[in-house]
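Example record

The entry below shows one chain as it appears in the dataset: sequence first, then structure tokens.
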Amino acid sequence: MLVLLAADLIKVVTLNADHLAAVRAADDVGAVGVAADLADEPYFARGRLAFCGHDDTLIKHSCYGLGLVASMDYESRLICFIDLLGFKAAIDQSVYDSVVRKRIYDVIESLGNGEIERLVYGAIPVVDVDGVRPAREVYDHEVIYNQFYPGIRMEVTQFSDSFVISAPAENAASCEMLIKSIFAVKLMFFVSLGMMMRGGIAVGDLVHVKNGPLFGPAMNEAYGLESSGAIYPRVVVSEAAKKILDANLSGTDAVDLIGVDFDGRYSFDLIDVLQWSGSAIRDKVFIGEQLKRIEEDVKAGHANAHPKIAYLLNRWRSVERDYC
């Protein structure tokens, strides 16, 4: 089966051996590679053509120019559904405040352009003649992404004020990438826009294709945890997801930040993430002022929501002395 991807055309045809040889020889196709997790199933890495040998598979073409074979079958994945708190108020303010409008635009655009992937994949250690260094110091992003994505397969989808990040549940490296990506998103929105996040992490059956379908029972569960379970600006983790994380990330500081909260739920929040070894934000004055600004915005627009920010302020006061 051959799937031709063009701006306004998706065409499926059957290939015989002669057709396949002709396609491979075509000048405009690009390099032919092998997907590591799909045995010997071939794909075209940078061309407009992609193909696979199964009738129940779908070909998608990523914005990075990497044509990948994506199954329509459910896969066990770890998923986080994230909602930005205060996004509506920021949008309202952006109508008359061009600075806020630009900040929103820049952050959303950077995420849509793969900023999360750049941050996380770029931090993967690689070895060259100068020793062990972060991948971003050795290669450009496209090379890094093409090298590591087939083994990690983390996906990020953003729509309006919500984000979904998922990764294969049984892959330890993927689970670590997912957690660190959530940490990075939390820090990015706190620093750039003074926004809080609420989220839910679940594990289960999911279809998540880059720039494509996103659905499954795990998505429903993660959304339910965010909308009904989190309540405060924190990320709640289901018991099943916590077991997966414990099994895959035992001994790492990432999983150590997930604890039992006052209501018995596994969770982590901004204060936990600020204490993560990957966070470079240690300025006590900046953190305090940013939290105070968020509190004032909440009081001005949604006074009944103040207990939610009060929860975070109380958490901050308990660790403030540890910052300089």
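Notes for this example: The longest strand covers residues 196-208. The domain at 75-322 is CATH 3.30.70.1230 (Alpha-Beta Plaits).
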